[in-house]
Amino acid sequence: xxxxxxxxxxxxxxxxxSGCSKDDDNGGGQGSGDGRVTTDEIYYANQFAYxxxxxxxxxxxEIAAEMQKLDPNVNExxxxxxxxIRFKENNKEVDKxxxxxxxxxxxxxxxxxxxxxxxxxxxxxxxxxxxxxFFIVAFVYEGSPAYKVGIKRGDIIMQLNGKEITKDNYQxxxxxxxxTLGMGEQKDGYIGLxxxxxxxxxxxxxxxxILVHKTFDVGGKKxxxxxxxxxxxxxxxxxxxxxxxxxxxxxxxxxxDLRYNGGxxxxxxxxxAFMLAPENVVKSKAVYETEIWNKDxxxxxxxxxxxxxxYFSTVVTNGSKTIDVGRANVGITKIYGPIGSGxxxxxxxxxxxxxxxxxxxLIGGQSHGKYCTGALLGPENIYxxxxxxxxxxxxxxxxxxxxxxxxxxxxxxxxxxxxxxxEDNPLDGYQLGDENESLLRLALDRAAGKTDxxxxxxxxxxxxxxxxxxxNPLFGKRIDNTLIDKIERKQIEECN
Length: 496
Fold this sequence. Notes:
Elements: E1 3-7, E2 13-15, H1 40-56, H2 78-85, E3 88-89, E4 92-93, E5 99-101, H3 104-111, E6 114-117, E7 120-126, E8 133-140, H4 145-148, E9 156-160, E10 163-164, H5 172-175, E11 178-187, E12 190-201, E13 203-206, E14 210-218, E15 221-228, H6 236-249, E16 253-257, E17 263-265, H7 266-276, H8 279-283, E18 287-292, H9 295-304, E19 310-311, E20 315-318, E21 321-324, E22 334-339, H10 346-354, E23 359-364, E24 372-377, E25 394-403, E26 420-421, H11 438-447, E27 466-468, E28 477-479, E29 493-495
């Protein structure tokens, strides 16, 4: 019978069909076939996970021993194993993001901004005197079910389907197909049920990440404001239109509100960064960011003559898609960046890449601390040919660590620290884009040259800690397959 082999990128010929095992089994995803308990799908999924990590993973040397758990003959949970073995240091999870899926199609669709959703972004709070939770709405996507029933930033949710919110049911607010919300209200620094209920049916829709864009007149100068919730691919051209508008309006500074932006595609990140950087920097094609890969890939790319730097450009390309951003260079001199724990990955990266070239002032809370780039890899990215049972499997795997032009990354290890700490307060009574909203007000005051915050309108948060619900599939992701796609595929060898 035919036995199919594939050639590993750097090291050796590995067998991937169960009937073509090697007697000199060297473990870890390369099992001998003896005592096999796994189905064909799980067998090949283990092998696929091992080969992705062994070739591309940033910390592959550090987890080499742990990778032996991906034995295709006996490991029946490759998804859980990938999560379990990703890199830790001193018992601290360094890599929080590498993940495997058996439904790559749905993952990619969700990352493109199309999701079955109620259309609200929530912050989770817990009562100090009970095990119950509550939600506060951070923002709502226009046109969504939540938007249509009038839910807005600052609204309080206290019940789900007539029940108190607990650790056992709180995810129903995000992942169910329909829900009845028991709304709350704030009184004298505490919250209780308002008596209002709202019923929502989830819909499949595109959640437009461009939440607000407008221009303010601040002491005689024009200051732009952009609240942006994810670097998805669809919004790239919309960002060009907005920057053209900012340019026409003559803004000289920009408030780039990324407090709820958990990341996305490097392509879209580059589109935005190249429009915000000084025009002379872009035209000179200066270094935007640098990258560090695992040792084997660094050597491989060096031999191939691949440049691991990203350079500013007036044109941004992603496969067959090209966007001219030269006409949209805004010409700003300073960025004010509202950030928080919901700011991650591509959002941190765009700020870091611009810092050496212009003034960037951060306002709010500490960011998430995602300092590495990942690739979305399916079997077609690894093999010339593969079994059909794993055609919809995939990995989001950390492939490199990004840094600015000088190799610095100030978000390592725990996130960017704000220059002006302030609480994100969705209970301040104002919507995103309102000049009196807490973080925007502080940014406008900074743009006006005010250093005294005593005059700023503030409303204290409830005496409870609020945690953003990071359910967006793009949260914590900085996705770039550019160099991965350039790697030469190895030919399949057959044996009889």
